[in-house]
Fold this protein.
Amino acid sequence: MLNHSVELQGRAKRPLSATQRKLFQLLFSMVALAFVLCGCATTDHRPPGPRAFDFQKDTFAFANELVWEYHFDANGKWISHPRKPRPDYTHRCFVVARSARQFFEHARFDPAQPVADAETYRRLIRRVLSTSPQHVLAYSDRGVIPGYADLHSFSAAQEALLKSQCGPAWQSYVQHGHWRIMVPFTRHNQERMAAQLVEDIKANHPPVAHLVRFPHLTINHAIVLFAANQTNSAILFTAYDPNNPKTPVTLTFDRATRTFTYPANDYFPGGRVDVYEVYRDWRY
């Protein structure tokens, strides 16, 4: 979405104090432990999906827009300015990423049928999005979207309707997995996460990844991963960024350092990020 960091969190760029970080980490470590202990026996019983996520077909034609413009100043400092004119569809990276996953696993498209009226599409969109993103529907149980071949063409033709139905910005703020950012990310955790993401992609379940740098506010963003190229030194994840629907982006996991990195773009200066998967189970 945006630099969901600065833009979602009041544009304050100063990290929390050491005392505040310790208190927050202690509190949320206790919460996290309870979640992990309750959910440690959870296994993924989802059957493999019928096909892989296709960037050209399974993404929205419109972008989650940025409220702020970001760049390095003459001193090399990453700064921001309000975008003018102010865009009208913002703060929705989690909304767009989640909705893309839901359309991929809860809907099917039939271009042979005639284009329907707005009320029919509104009802079908609500049906798709009312099914939890943690669940995968059998192909025969998926809602049929008539008149279009895929989500990309559907969203290009019905942009205003989809924007009004996919969800408000507050759903990005209160995504219930946000508690995880308060718990320290270990290198072992990130190594396990990389393996989990690869397995999800192999099973045709494109994971929604939350990218963070807490307590720094340089990024707090959601993307959809749909391919993984593994080498001896790294895993190169190909992803759909809701902020940039025109081209895929790459999230890299370095095996030696057990660290994820995300490239520089128009809302993030580039560098290390911590990653975890959201919308996978009841904890996240």
Notes: The two ends are 19 Å apart (CA to CA).
